[in-house]
């Protein structure tokens, strides 16, 4: 992939061709930058990664700041711990902050499941999703996670992607029952992402600014096949339709192993411009231009803002 790597490194493709589409953020919208400590044996990098993503999301940070009431769980209250660390991000003069309070609250909350325990490494993507679900619990505990419509519930109002999937056979006309579901993070295999990037660049003269959305769609569709509902012998690709327009779209990159050698190729495959309709067929065309950040399930810094625009 060296030729692809050199292309993106030189400023071409999605990053270079998108100039003029990305609206620069004002200095007042940029959150102060501070680090989070991770002493030997703490193994808190997974939590720190999720924290940095949430802090650097302007929409989340500002909305969370406005929340004042919640169902408190005292020493295992993730809401209180998150409020505390956000206050330190905003007002502390220290350049490196401890995440111990949130680490402890997370461990106590999931003690029965033996997840996110002190000193034990865990998954950053799962931590990110569980932090969102715990915020839902603290502020909208009376509403189920899969049907929450509370206006003050940041996770569901800002992050939740409402989709339904269905199989339709063009040969016999059979259709499967539509399956509705809510998704906080759209996961894509890094192996599929890199393989599709190579295929796409091999069959065109040069990369285009809108290639990243097409790349994500192709990568997410790999292996997404089902047998015909009437067993006519056809193998069908699952159709998924996005029913809403979330303000924040989180893309989770799934690594096939703990020691993947694809990190550099993945970074160079990421674009800076994305038409949301290219990723998932929308139900409506009412999408706004929103600047968001993505994250990966591995230890890495926050990525640069990505501009999401409608077709």
UniProtKB/TrEMBL annotation:
One Gene Ontology MF term: cysteine-type deubiquitinase activity
- Entry's InterPro entries? Papain-like_cys_pep_sf, Peptidase_C19_UCH, Ubiquitin_hydrolase_53/54, USP
**USP domain location:** 34-311
Q: Which UniProt keywords apply?
A: Hydrolase, Ubl conjugation pathway
Q: Which Pfam families match?
A: UCH
Q: Name one GO biological process term.
A: protein deubiquitination
Fetch the PANTHER family from UniProt.
INACTIVE UBIQUITIN CARBOXYL-TERMINAL HYDROLASE 54, UBIQUITIN SPECIFIC PROTEINASE
Q: What protein does this entry describe?
A: Inactive ubiquitin carboxyl-terminal hydrolase 54-like
Q: What is the lineage of its organism?
A: Eukaryota, Metazoa, Chordata, Craniata, Vertebrata
